[in-house]
Amino acid sequence: QVQLVESGGGSVQTGGSLRVSCAASGDTKCISDMGWFRQAPGKERELVALIEEGGSTNYADSVKGRFTISRDNPKNTLYLQMNSLKPEDTAVYSCNARHRIDYFRGCYGKAYWGNGTLVTVSS
Fold first, then answer.
1. Contact 120/85 with Cβ under 8 angstroms?
2. CA distance 47 to 59
3. First-to-last CA distance in the chain?
4. Which of 10, 4, 53, 1 is CA-nearest to residue 24?
């Protein structure tokens, strides 16, 4: 099992910046890909950014050039630096971590979610 706890959300004005963090604990040795998702009121959850175990990153078109995902593996922590924030970025941001499949090491490909942290961008 993996526990994910997000922090760093809050309120900011348009054009401002925030950094959200996600601390992982528990069976972290199996974690491969990690990502940030967000869900705005009345909308479906969407992928914001993904970082693979080797460090490769991918971003939703809506945040490219403004958001940066990173991870500190020794600290088991995932980050999302958000710059030039817009009102449409307002959402609950949730962390996701996926176990790799490696049966000999007890890793079975399960995905885990945090509870999320609210980011509000006012105009």
1. no
2. 8
3. 40
4. 4
CA distance 65 to 77: 22
Integer Cα distance of 70 and 56 in angstroms: 10
Give 3-state DSSP helix, strand, coil % of the chain, rounded to 5: 5, 60, 35
Pairing of strands 10-13, 117-122: parallel
User: Each residue of 56-101: pLDDT tens digit?
Assistant: 999 999 999 999 999 999 999 999 999 999 999 999 999 999 999 9
CA dihedral of residues 27, 28, 33, 34 (deg, nearest 10): 100
What distance in Å separates the CA atoms of residue 58 and residue 18, rounded to the nearest whole number? 19
C-alpha pair distances (Å), 64 with each of 5, 15, 28, 35, 57: 25, 15, 28, 15, 11
